[in-house]
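A reminder from the course coordinator: this example appears on the midterm review sheet, so study it carefully.

Given structure:
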């Protein structure tokens, strides 16, 4: 088990955020960045309820942008 989990965070089109862990089957969402941070911690605690928890959680914001080529 790694001491760090990395979550890919995307901003939803209708508002809010979605976070998906890149190495474990953990996904959560929230309306605000502060809520998302709390939800990620809660989801990780729940996922590892009977085992060793990671020491660190990294939230990596992903920005998707489309550029027109004229």
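Designed residues:
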């Amino acid at each position: 088990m790694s001491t760090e989990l990395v979550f890919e965070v995307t901003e939803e089109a209708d508002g809010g955020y979605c976070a998906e862990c890149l190495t474990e089957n953990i996904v959560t969402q929230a309306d605000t960045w502060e809520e998302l941070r709390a939800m990620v911690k809660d989801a990780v605690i729940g996922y590892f309820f009977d085992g060793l928890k990671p020491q660190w959680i990294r939230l990596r914001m992903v920005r998707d942008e489309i550029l027109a080529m004229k």
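The helical segments are 33-47. The domain at 4-62 is CATH 3.30.2390 (TTHA1013/TTHA0281-like).
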